[in-house]
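Bumping my old thread because nobody answered last time. Still need a sequence for this structure:
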């Protein structure tokens, strides 16, 4: 078969499917993306570049849409080149979030399309006004509604869609859900696995060292921002570190803002460290920025308590991977998290935002070794039951067959048929939402 994948950040959500397809050595695989250093053997990457940015004269609420249309045009121009050379894909698979797929119907009107629908924005009831500390200015509501312009155009393409969780599917209008299949994303259970022995030796990450006798609390996000509860974690630190003098905290994430608003000045990291200056032992809190993927996996394997917080928004890949690694998880009691974590069984859920409640839950977990062991084992069992990559791959195969009438052969391989492979070259944690 001939596959055309499209995602502005290769390989995006398609890493594991691409590996399996390429390993079969029977398909032609093209991937259209903005330039980056990632690569996969057997996948031909074709780069596109934006010829301009949105005009400063464009209405503020329409700038995101204008950028999507600029991107759609750039992708179509890149694809037209190999379309004119005779390439006709059997299926187009891509992410609708940035508008990249919108013009491909004009090039291949009869080719089945499987588009990734990530989130439908609402002005109330989900992430907007969820955190009382950051109320939404009513003047922002038109801009929030305008974020769905690409969503609505994508839904009009008469193509099928996928989304990874029931929560995300239900953010879409009821009339749209019939064309969106829940296709759960898995975790690489071979790469993401427990390593109890790592607590018996010194853990080193850059210039940070954690002794076997110390307790390690971890937090991971692409960006250090309120949407992922960074401010809640920081405000929990004074009590946590005061009551556990043997604890260290490693915080992974950059200063970029992926979701929500930027602070008026500086970064959220700067704002929170300034707010809490002098209230906790800063020598035991390590904000390490971005880390490479192997280091990230080692960090979660060493973690004694892993904190995952989020607004009612898209759940991070890192939550699935933390479950697979068998982390003792303390997470926000929010809808996207409850789809993965059951309070008292596979983790502890805490109200959001509640810094004192978060500190209490972490302290409880650090003090109760039997509880920690039980949650860790249950998290891994959950991952083995619900997150095997074979399930994810099989679901893709079913959709590909339904849409094209042809089998890609993905199911023929099965879990474990391929040897473990490293992530693409230089894939940093920023690729994990």
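Sorry it took so long. Here it is:
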């Amino acid at each position: 078969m001939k596959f055309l994948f499209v995602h502005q950040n290769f390989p995006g959500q398609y890493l594991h499917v691409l590996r399996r397809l390429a390993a079969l050595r029977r398909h032609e695989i093209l991937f259209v993306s903005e330039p980056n250093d990632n690569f996969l053997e057997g996948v031909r990457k074709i780069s596109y570049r934006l010829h301009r940015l949105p005009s400063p004269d464009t209405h503020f609420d329409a700038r995101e849409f204008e950028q999507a249309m600029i991107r759609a045009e750039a992708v179509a121009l890149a694809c037209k080149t190999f379309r004119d050379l005779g390439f006709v894909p059997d299926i187009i698979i891509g992410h609708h979030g940035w508008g990249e797929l919108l013009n491909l119907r004009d090039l291949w009107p009869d080719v089945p399309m499987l588009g990734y629908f990530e989130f439908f924005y609402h002005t109330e009831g989900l992430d907007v006004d969820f955190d009382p500390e950051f109320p939404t200015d009513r003047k922002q509501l038109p801009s929030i509604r305008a974020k769905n312009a690409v969503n609505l155009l994508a839904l009009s393409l008469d193509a099928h869609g996928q989304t990874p969780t029931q929560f995300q599917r239900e953010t879409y209008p009821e009339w749209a859900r019939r064309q969106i299949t829940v296709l759960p994303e898995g975790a690489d259970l071979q790469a993401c696995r427990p390593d109890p022995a790592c607590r018996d030796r010194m853990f080193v990450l850059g210039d940070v060292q954690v002794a076997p006798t110390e307790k390690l609390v971890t937090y991971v996000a692409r960006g250090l921002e309120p949407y992922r509860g960074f401010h809640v974690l920081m405000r929990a630190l004074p009590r946590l570190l005061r009551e556990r003098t043997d604890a260290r905290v490693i915080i992974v994430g950059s200063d970029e803002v992926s979701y929500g608003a930027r602070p008026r000045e500086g970064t959220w990291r700067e704002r929170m460290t300034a707010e809490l200056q002098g209230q906790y032992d800063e020598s035991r809190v390590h904000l390490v920025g971005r880390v490479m993927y192997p280091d990230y996996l080692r960090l979660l394997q060493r973690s004694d308590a892993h904190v995952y917080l989020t607004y009612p928004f898209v759940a991070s890949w890192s939550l699935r991977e933390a479950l697979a690694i068998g982390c003792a998880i303390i997470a926000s009691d929010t809808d996207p998290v409850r789809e993965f974590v059951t309070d008292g069984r596979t983790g502890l859920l805490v109200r959001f935002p509640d810094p004192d409640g978060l500190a209490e839950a972490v302290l409880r977990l650090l003090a109760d070794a039997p509880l920690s062991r039980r949650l860790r084992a249950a998290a891994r069992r959950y991952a083995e039951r619900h997150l095997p990559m074979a399930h994810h791959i099989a679901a893709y195969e079913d959709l590909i067959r339904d849409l094209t009438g042809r089998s890609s052969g993905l199911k023929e391989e099965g879990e474990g048929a391929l040897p473990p492979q490293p992530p693409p070259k230089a894939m940093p944690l920023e690729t994990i939402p």
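Confidence is low (pLDDT under 50) at residues 414-433. Let me know if any region looks off to you.
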